[in-house]
């Protein structure tokens, strides 16, 4: 049983410009607790095996074309996040993947997207990002969702497909499939091949009993130790019944801990996504 004095670390799953942002907080064991705060920024050297960095923990490797909606996002050519194709012109990802902090967007020309490949640095279509659209109410760990308008239209085919947006969240206990190129564990090596795993959705009430202050717009996905998302999986998809239900946002107490992972709840943002893209 966790003590109310146990310190947890919530980590946004970003690998960008060699920086990893860590935020300290505690599990919610009482009603009145203060909001988590920025603790520090640690440099990440991807040429070393030590230090925090990205990939799906546990699970297995994806077959070519198994997740045709999955993309990899790059900043100045370096991998930083995942994302999902929602039309030939638009990708959805996490807001913290394209901002230095809430309210400060990186220029769109920093970014490129690879679609249609299960390999991190080869294959598929490689296109530039023309515009980033961040949710106007984004702040750390809340409303952490963004749209990317691509500079050229993707050629939709068997390996490049748009995924429908869910209109309702999955029932508690549902199997939700996550995928990404993040690291296999905290301090683990950078993956070059797409992986996936199956987690379980839990209610917001259940989640708030484990981690304090979880927003109603956050989808919590539970898992056993040694499974879940890791750094670099930010922006990547959570899929239920063939529809996008979540966008990867953060982990608690490191990769593969027993705490649930936090995803932006797509049904909560469905109207905003449709209004700011070319979806009908």
Automatic annotation (TrEMBL):
GO terms for biological process: proteolysis. The keyword Hydrolase applies. SMART domains: Tryp_SPc. Residues 1-25 form the signal peptide. Residues 56-278 form the Peptidase S1 domain. GO terms for molecular function: serine-type endopeptidase activity. Keywords: Disulfide bond, Hydrolase, Protease, Serine protease, Signal. Residues 34-53 are annotated as: Disordered. Belongs to the peptidase S1 family. PANTHER family: AT26814P-RELATED, POLYSERASE-RELATED. This is Serine protease SP24D. The gene is Sp24D_9.
